[in-house]
Amino acid sequence: MSRPELVAPPEIYYGDTEATKYTNNSRIQQIQADMTYRALELLNLPPEEPAFLLDIGCGSGLSGEILTEEGYEWVGMDVAPSMLEVALEREVEGDLFLQDIGQGMGFRPGSFDGAISISVLQWLLNAETSHPTSSPPHRLTRFFTTLHSALRNPSRAIFQFYPTSDDQIQLITSIAQKAGFGGGVVVDYPNSKKARKVFLCLYVGSGGGQQAPKGLEGEEQEVDESRARFESRRERVKKGDKKRKQIKGKEWTLRKKEVCTTYWCANCPRLTFYSVVSSTRERKCTSRLKIHWPQAQSSFLRTGSRAKPFIKLV
Ligand SMILES: C[S@@+](CC[C@H](N)C(=O)[O-])C[C@H]1O[C@@H](n2cnc3c(N)ncnc32)[C@H](O)[C@@H]1O
After folding, report:
1. Which of 17, 217, 243, 264 has its CA 20 to 30 A from that of 309?
2. 90 and 36 in a common domain
3. Rounded CA separation 282/88 (Å)
4. Are residues 141 and 19 in the same domain?
5. Which domain holds residue 286?
6. Which intervals carry biased composition (Basic and acidic residues) (predicted)?
């Protein structure tokens, strides 16, 4: 069977039917969860500290759910409206943006403490149109340059993806390097046809740790052991303090929620901010409210008790 990214553009491939099918498939749920746990391990965030993460190509929130379970605040972006609709229906905790990552992103510098991306990057290797600025190198350059700026120094971005050749890995790593990232590729279970997983580990600055991460070793029969390892980690979280310590406190979260109840309507340029009115989870057009991009985003992302978002009634 062809890989999805060879069949149609993501927003077409993940239409209503496929988005629901994908999300309800228990095997996919398990695989995406395992890869997210591994990405978090490679992200190497300081334990017991809150962190604000970006989930690139968040889809219907399978990866984001793990971020929530592990106590992180997150923002997800995806180009497929149907996937985001499913995420909204499932009431994921993260805030969701409709955005093509190949066009770059407009977050204020240093907004995120880290980023993960599970099963997404291979989509950027396929040109959207024959226009030269839609070529994979152009899209990858826009993506990595703006991502580098959106991450704080030091931090990491971890991508699990499905390259089909070493040339693809080479293309991606060289463009990431030009955008300012350090790091490299980690391959788990390199000798296993079934369990082999490729992770691109990108560093801003030192990446927050001196040691380069190592790939997991073993053959197919050992894969179940790795699953057991993730499960026991999950169990540990459940047994211990369930939520990570919220050093920034309730005010921080409430401020974020307050800003998130407003979103861009379909007429707004660049992107749509899907969000929900907290109690009802209802999505409501607030187009009489215009939030000025990127100022609102900035104050939202840098949060705390800083400046109020620049919301203007029009
Ligand atoms: C296999 S799904 C993974 C979703 C989620 N990370 C998970 O673990 O379930 C791949 C996702 O990448 C998204 N995607 C592909 N190309 C994208 C692009 N250019 N911009 C944003 N999202 C994209 C797709 O819409 C889809 O939701």
Report:
1. 243
2. yes
3. 9
4. yes
5. 248-313
6. 224-234
Q: In terms of domains, do 30 and 146 share one? A: yes
Pocket residues: Cβ below 6 A from ligand 1: 10, 14, 32, 57-59, 62-63, 77-80, 83, 100-102, 118-120, 123-124
Residues 162, 55 share a domain: yes
Q: Which atom of ligand 1 is nearest to the CA of 4?
A: 1
- Report pLDDT digits (tens) over 50-80: 899 999 999 999 999 999 999 999 999 999 9
CA nearest ligand 1 atom 24, residue: 10
- The b-or-e profile of 158-187 (16+ CB within 10 A means b, else e) is bbbbbbeeeebbebbbebbeebbbbbbbbe
Nearest CA to ligand 1 atom 27: 59
Q: Quickly list DSSP for 136-203.
A: HHHHHHHHHHHHHHHB-SSEEEEEEE--SSHHHHHHHHHHHHHTT-EEEEEEESTT-TTT-EEEEEEE
CATH number, residue 100: 3.40.50.150
Return the ligand 1 atom nearest residue 28 CA. 9
How far, in Å, from the CA of 311 to the mean position of ligand 1? 30
In a domain, 56, yes or no: yes
Tens-place pLDDT, residues 103-121 = 999 899 999 999 999 999 9
**What is the CA(125)–ligand 1 centre distance, in A?**
13
